[in-house]
Design goal:
With 406 residues, this protein is α/β, with parallel strands linked by helices. Helix content is 38%, strand content 18%. The chain is globular. The chain starts with 5 loop residues before the first strand and ends in a 5-residue tail after the last helix.
């Protein structure tokens, strides 16, 4: 079956030009947290378009940008995480975050430049963002002007998830002690790397390690943020307070492009020192776009009013339990998940491609990441949708893999 030509959507379902209905198990571009066709978000954007669509925030400001910054601060785990600048995408948020990191150290008169990340992490598609990873098809050969240490996983995801975080933390410690480190940049759950669930205690240990070495902790919540993992942010599962947070995909739920970089008070204060920029402003033409901010404000309201974080946790647990039965197949290596992110790891990329093709025939559009088939549906998924998704995706796997363990 060829790629579907989609013409409309409602909730967690989409329809193609031939009238075929699909469960959207990849949330559009992993960002349709509130589902498709929500008139509340469309109305919020339309109302703002009738007032003022946008204005350069370096010259004048407007209520949607101010209100969205306050709304983001209200869902952060610490009132000191309250200074936000807006850009257009997750990749741009990564770029801005790294620049903020380097400006922070420059403002303090310290030449730290070294950044540490996961080799299997994903932080965007721009040159700088690609430089933080070694994921095949995403890494770049361009050499940047600052050193980067990319930490490989010390064990397969299943063993890593079930074990202690010590080996992982030791690898980060070694890299951070080798030279003064400006920042550590990680995702609370590694999305493109295969839906890798990090061991419990890792983020807490990493926060302590950053405190010990002075490095800033930058948590990339572009994918995880705004309810995807069953909490408002992925780092909320461990009660961690980062120094910088990036958000994008769920921020406006796919209705308009927008991203944010939120900084701790201590980071912001460095910009008020002599020689600092005075503010977190990086000159993007449509950064803080009024229509984008208005839509994002409505998304935040919906996430809280409709209790989508709790729904993601409940439906995600059901989805993980249902798809977990697929480990009966010898060529299913692992099934793992957190909230409404469930990853079925297969023995090969060919297996995953064939499962994807069969899933489309069943009426499901999952996400393929290498040899992983990921179910990442909108947070509005209900129990009936869980059951249908499990049935159809399991049928696709059964068709491809056939033989099961005795």
């Amino acid at each position: 079956m060829s790629r579907p030509f989609l013409v409309r959507g409602s909730g967690y379902r989409v329809w193609d030009q031939d009238g075929r209905m699909f469960i959207d198990a990849m949330s559009s571009a992993l960002n349709a947290n509130c589902g498709h066709g929500d008139p509340r978000i469309a109305d919020a954007a339309h109302r703002q378009m009738q007032r003022i669509a946008h204005f350069d925030l370096g010259v004048g400001t407007h209520a949607p940008a101010q209100d969205l910054a306050r709304a983001l601060a209200s869902v952060m785990p610490d009132p000191a995480l309250r200074w936000t600048t807006f850009v257009n995408s997750g990749s741009e948020a990564t770029e801005a975050a790294i620049r903020i990191v380097h400006d922070y150290w420059g403002n303090r008169g310290d030449p730290r430049r070294h950044v540490v990340s996961f080799a299997a992490g994903y932080h965007g598609s721009t040159v700088l963002a690609k430089s933080l990873t070694t994921i095949p098809r995403n890494a770049t050969e361009v050499t940047l002007s600052f050193p980067i240490s990319r930490i490989p996983m010390p064990a397969p995801p299943r063993a890593l998830r079930e074990g202690l975080p010590d080996a992982l933390l030791d690898a980060f410690r070694e890299a951070m002690e080798a030279q003064p480190t400006a920042a550590v940049v990680v995702e609370p759950l590694l999305n493109v790397g295969g839906g890798i669930v990090l061991p419990t205690g890792f983020l807490r240990g990493l926060r302590a390690l950053c405190d010990e070495t002075g490095a800033l902790l930058v948590l990339d919540e572009v994918f995880c943020g705004l309810g995807r993992t069953g909490r408002m942010f992925g780092f909320d599962h461990e009660g961690v307070v980062p120094d910088i947070v990036t958000t994008s995909k769920g921020l406006a739920a796919g209705y308009v492009p927008i991203a944010s970089v939120t900084c701790h008070q201590t980071v912001y204060e460095s910009f008020t020192l002599p020689g600092g920029l005075g503010a977190l402003h990086y000159g993007h033409t449509t950064g803080g776009h009024a229509v984008g901010c208005a839509a994002a404000l409505e998304v935040l309201r919906i996430v809280r009013a409709d209790e989508l974080c709790g729904n993601a946790a409940a439906r995600g647990a059901e989805l993980l339990e249902g798809l977990g039965a697929l480990v009966r197949h010898e060529r299913v290596v692992d099934v793992r998940g957190l909230g409404l992110v469930v990853s079925v790891e297969l023995a090969s990329e060919d297996d995953a491609a064939e499962v994807l093709a069969r899933a489309l025939e069943q009426g499901v559009i999952p996400r393929q990441q290498g040899r992983h088939i990921m179910a990442v549906p909108p947070l509005v998924l209900d129990r009936a949708g869980v059951d249908e998704l499990v049935t159809k995706l399991s049928a696709a796997v059964d068709q491809v893999l056939g033989h099961v363990r005795s």
